[in-house]
Design a protein that fits this description.
Helices cover 39% and strands 20% of the residues. By secondary structure, it is of the alpha/beta class. It has two domains: 8-256 and 461-483, Aldehyde Dehydrogenase, Chain A, domain 1; 260-449, Aldehyde Dehydrogenase, Chain A, domain 2, CATH 3.40.309.10. The longest helix has 21 residues, at 102-122. The chain is globular and about 70 Å long. The structure holds 7-thionicotinamide-adenine-dinucleotide phosphate.
Length: 484
């Protein structure tokens, strides 16, 4: 594997050109596996740079909207082809920059390619309906219009897939974009932008600008020429963005945290449930909005499940995501490591029992922590209520499936939930009663296939959906046309 990105400086992409920030300042993005390594430098942009990017997107929007949708789709096919030739390189950068293992990073990058192709095809699908009029001489139909300029604000944990699942539908439905990635994954995002730039989209259609959330992110939210904001990230930031966008009448879409349960019923295939709990909870070091964090188990099989789970968790190899034998990489940053460690302390203080893990890996320089398993966790504890965003599983014992669903619902988030059961009545109750946007039966908590809607209930989401056909609802408005 190469170290080609090391210390290279990446620029903003504004109005079809790579540009340094007017601040003349850049910042290094750190490798969490080896904090002495700078993966690359990104621009610390200013409001002035942001205004330029927004003006460029605004200027480009009419011509882009008027381009035939299949032609817009063709640009996405082109970007997909370019990205596909760089999958290994971009995945390697992702592993260096935010720590997820190389196979996971590669899977995510390939998903980015598939999302681009899916939305490229959307350029050839219908976007309106003919509605019967009571007037026999009239034609009544709906037509979709783009919002205009869309601000895309993304987190560090899926630095390829999330920006693409926002930008691809934004573009194909005729919007122009200003993209602000998370600083902690800015180099990976810059490489996605390179693929877009190479596809030669018209000037100003996609603009890329790095810098802090408080300056660039907030600036996008507040700018009168930004017609829509699509955000994925933490709940605190999301709420603030929602309020800002609402105050000036911009459309917004928020995908935020999760506190996802898995229910293991007495009749479950226990080996399947154990493997899925581990994979759903600990892959990507638990840094997924859909990660399993609460494991709610029926008492009659609790001990057997716990023993099987612990046996496998103890075998997990934590290490550099670029090494083939590593199953789990580091926390993505020092602050993430500190947050996870403080939740582990809090869990112990609140009376939960730490059965295994939660320790820094002493032999490693980076922000590595062993996967933690708690038991005797009750609903009022912080580790049962708050999103930890780390490799921590909280075991909770219940008697019945009704109680399990009640406990599963006893949080303010509602993103993803799974049940393991072979009883049809159990899973029908679960599908009906579970307050979550993604409910899964005998399958680990995870995202969904890209052609299906993705999003949460309760505090997890602003209730619009991403991915699949559902994305059109956010990225367009309906025009109702009556022709006499
Ligand atoms: P955040 O800290 O919320 O950051 C997300 C993005 O918002 C970053 O680009 C950040 O910029 C920017 N930002 C920060 N302050 C802002 C402000 N005042 N105005 C506008 N933008 C601002 O989240 P994160 O730590 O990157 O990601 C982890 C969180 O994302 C978790 O809570 C996780 O659950 C959530 N997440 C949710 C989903 C879905 S689909 N529900 C998927 C993945 C992740 P900088 O950080 O660069 O300053």
């Amino acid at each position: 594997m190469s170290t080609a990105t090391q210390n290279q400086t990446y620029l903003n992409f504004i109005n079809g050109e790579w540009q340094a920030s007017s601040s003349e300042k850049s910042q290094g993005s750190i490798n969490p596996t080896n904090p002495d390594e700078v993966v690359g430098n990104y621009q610390l942009s200013t409001k002035e740079d942001l205004n330029q990017a927004i003006e460029a997107a605004d200027h480009a929007k009419t011509a882009w909207r008027k381009l035939a949708a299949p032609e817009r789709g063709n640009y996405l096919f082109k970007i997909a082809d370019i990205l596909e030739t760089r999958v290994d390189e971009i995945a390697e950068t992702m592993t260096r920059e935010m720590g997820k293992t190389f196979p996971e990073a590669k899977g995510e990058t390939m998903r980015g390619v598939a999302i681009l192709r899916y939305y490229a095809g959307e350029g050839m699908r219908k976007t309106g309906d003919v509605i019967p009029s009571t007037d026999k001489d009239a034609l009544m139909f709906t037509k979709r219009s783009p919002l205009g300029v869309v601000g895309v604000i993304t987190p560090w944990n899926f630095p390829v897939a999330i920006p693409i699942w926002k930008m691809a539908p934004a573009l194909v439905y005729g919007n122009t974009v200003v993209f602000k990635p998370a600083q902690e994954a800015a180099i990976t995002a810059a490489k996605v932008m390179e693929c877009m730039a190479e596809a030669n989209l018209p000037q100003g259609v996609v603009n890329f600008i790095t810098g802090s959330g408080s300056t660039i992110g907030q600036g996008l939210v507040d700018h009168p020429k930004v017609d829509g904001i699509t955000f994925t990230g933490s709940e605190n930031v999301g709420r603030r963005i929602g309020q800002g966008a609402l105050a000036r009448g911009a459309k917004y879409q928020l995908e935020m945290g999760g506190k996802n349960p898995v229910i293991v019923a007495a009749d479950a295939d226990l080996d399947l449930a154990v493997d899925a709990t581990i994979s759903g909870g600990l892959k990507s070091t638990g840094q997924k909005c859909t990660a399993t964090s609460r494991v709610i188990v029926q008492s009659s099989i609790y001990d057997e499940f716990k023993e099987k789970l612990l046996e496998k968790v103890k075998q997990i190899k934590v290490g550099d995501g670029l090494k083939e034998d590593s199953w789990m990489g580091p926390c993505a940053s020092e602050s993430q490591f500190n947050t996870v460690s403080s939740y582990i302390d809090k869990g112990k203080e609140e009376g939960a029992v730490l059965l295994y893990g939660g320790e820094p890996v002493k032999e490693e320089k980076g922000y590595f922590i062993t996967p933690a398993v708690f038991e005797n966790v009750t609903s009022e504890m912080a580790i049962a209520q708050e999103e930890i965003f780390g490799p921590v599983l909280a075991l909770m014992k219940v008697e019945t499936i009704e109680e399990a669903i009640e406990v599963a619902n006893d949080v303010e988030f509602g993103l993803s939930a799974s049940i393991f059961t072979t009883n049809i009545q159990n899973f029908l109750s679960f599908i009906d009663d579970m307050e979550a946007g993604l409910v899964r039966v005998n399958a680990e908590s995870a995202g969904v296939e890209l052609q299906a809607p993705f999003g949460g209930m309760k505090r997890s989401s602003s209730h619009s959906r991403e991915q699949g056909e559902a994305a059109i609802e956010f990225f367009t408005s309906i025009k109702t046309v009556f022709v006499k």
